Amino acid sequence: MYILGNLSIYFALILSVYAFIVFVLGIKRQDQRLIDSGRGATLAVFILASVSMLLMFIMLGTSQFQFQYVYQYTSSDLPLLYKLSALWAGNAGSLLLWTFFLTMYSAMVAYSFKMKRNPLTPYIVAIMTLNTIFFYLILGFVTKPFVLLDGVPLEGRGLNPMLQDPGMILHPVTIYLGYVGLVVPFAFAIASLILKNMDSFWIKMTRRWTIIAWLFLTLGNVIGGYWAYTELGWGGYWAWDPVENASFMPWLTVTAYLHSVMIQERKNMLKIWNLSLIILSYALTLFGTFLVRSGVLTSVHAFGETNLGAYFLIFMAFMVIFSMYILMSRYHLIKKDTGQFESFFSKESSFLVNNLILVGGTFAVFWGTIFPLVSEAVRGTKVTVGIPFFNTVMSPILLALLFVMAICPLIAWQRSSMKNIRDNFLIPAIISLVIAGLLVVMGIRDAYPVISFGIIAFMVLTHIVEFIRGTKARRKVTQESVPVALYRLLIRSRRRYGGYIVHLGIAIMAFGIVGANFDIERLETLSVGESVILGDYTITYEGLSQRSEGVNDIVFANMKVEKNGKQLGYMQPERMFYLNWEEPSTNVAVRSTLSEDLYIVLSAWESDQRATFKFKINPLVKWIWIGTYVLIIGAVFAIWKGRYGNVVPRYSGPQRKVH
């Protein structure tokens, strides 16, 4: 297995180099045989990557501790599911997973029916293959997945307890699918520039690729937040950790890109902006990987200090310089026949403002993330930027973004008259102001939550108005019933209304996020029988108990919970101690309702059973997870082909003899 595993890595590297060379030669000589050979090599590389993955899964699942990776990240008592998920617990395994996804996407593009006989295909696959070569160089010479130890240990070191969670089975996979997915639109964009195809064909062909990548990034971020909320025990779901920021920044730029490409498709505007956004998004995926694997910044998510970060930084710099060179060399062609903005009060302008807000947010997060490195370089002292900075900067950015999202659906293309603005926005604005006023009457005096809830209400109402307006317009023409008219309206404009559903999901998530302004937290040390009052809750500590779970021991507290005199039952915050790991893990006790979460953490205890707890009430948190489900539904609806989504964009760019 050692020989087979390493052969699969090195043969894949050789074939990747071969594929790249024959693609370049085939393009230069216009020789279709060379292109076909490169396409075959691309498929062979994917097969070899699959073999590497299968071998690694077998090694992990069967506890073959003679392999260094298996020894470092598993143990014989580990459940099979966590043994297999240990594949992405370390550098070598996670990069192998990344490479597998990359080769899979490359093969899918190379053999895509929609790209059959398209002259862009060799360029696209060559660019993706260049990325594959880099990853195989890392796997072959820097962090090798198939390394034998000198002896055969009786037992492995085990998996980090923080990774023994269902969220950690899904979180890395979704993040990698998002990261790798952005290579596809990047490759399409650069290939179009090289071939001097300046229309929006590459945008239309990669629309679903980009939305799927965006969806996986969204899922990765939310699942990571849920894991942090239930596993880390600090009481929140987003700490603006450098690695969290690393996956959030490309999400912001891709969100901006998905909006701005609509302007290019409809009005032939923002060509350079869109190309720059997709290059930036791609570069940020590499930058995020640099942060995770370099150890330059402290993070609970990082893989530790290694020299891998330097390689990613060099590769990122090379790809960005290469991309910008191609972009600037085609600048005069891109600027031809570019449309112009006709009015500030138009849908195009609202999309542009949306983009500026998102890119501004990206820069704010980027600056806060790298500030410790900048301060260390300038002053010799690493100054860390904390949660208050990010919350202070990003809160108004969130509100501005929600406000623009509220305006976008109802504002007209090209130019909106004052009558149009008044007719579309007057009623939602009045209702939103009434809601804000009611919140003040109910006793909420802080400006930020009042304004936030008012804007969220305005956003939801404008989207509802858009659904109603579209249904009415369709009924006027077809005389259909309301349900039929609404259904057919949606399925005939999946991209548009799927996007609106995504907006509603984000509004629901924002509703939950704003709830953090009302959280209550206390740290208390209690003796058995003592109670603590937190808001409407009375929580009584009834003692510690212990139980075993396999080879692990669990210490848990019995907490009787009452609310307004009514008994709600018991909650049991836990600390789990592992046979193969020095540090215990925290299992938070959470009682979740639509209005609030009661959150209890067992922090420490004494021999006389006195225990210290963190108690927290987190209002509206459940709406973040509900909003995520709505967002997923909207994104899937938008990309689902259906009866009206099977039209393949027509390529009208320069022709070549090879395809």
UniProtKB/TrEMBL annotation:
Molecular function GO terms recorded: heme binding; heme transmembrane transporter activity
Segments crossing the lipid bilayer: 6-27, 39-60, 80-102, 123-149, 169-195, 207-228, 248-263, 275-296, 308-328, 349-373, 393-413, 425-444, 450-468, 497-518, 623-640
Compartments reported by the entry: Cell inner membrane
Gene Ontology biological process: cytochrome complex assembly
Keywords attached to this entry: Cell inner membrane, Cell membrane, Cytochrome c-type biogenesis, Membrane, Transmembrane, Transmembrane helix
InterPro entries, per the entry: CcmF_C, Cyt_c_assembly, Cyt_c_biogenesis, Cyt_c_biogenesis_CcmF
Entry annotated with the keyword Cell membrane: yes
Domain Cytochrome c-type biogenesis protein CcmF C-terminal: residue ranges: 313-639
Cell inner membrane in keyword set: yes
Domain Cytochrome c assembly protein: from-to ranges: 89-294
Superkingdom, natural source: Bacteria
Mode of membrane association: Multi-pass membrane protein
Main location: membrane
GO CC term, one of those recorded: plasma membrane
Record family assignment: Belongs to the CcmF/CycK/Ccl1/NrfE/CcsA family.
PANTHER family xref list: CYTOCHROME C ASSEMBLY PROTEIN-RELATED, CYTOCHROME C-TYPE BIOGENESIS PROTEIN CCMF
Protein purpose: Required for the biogenesis of c-type cytochromes. Possible subunit of a heme lyase.
UniProt-recorded name of the protein: Cytochrome c-type biogenesis protein CcmF
Native organism: Evansella caseinilytica
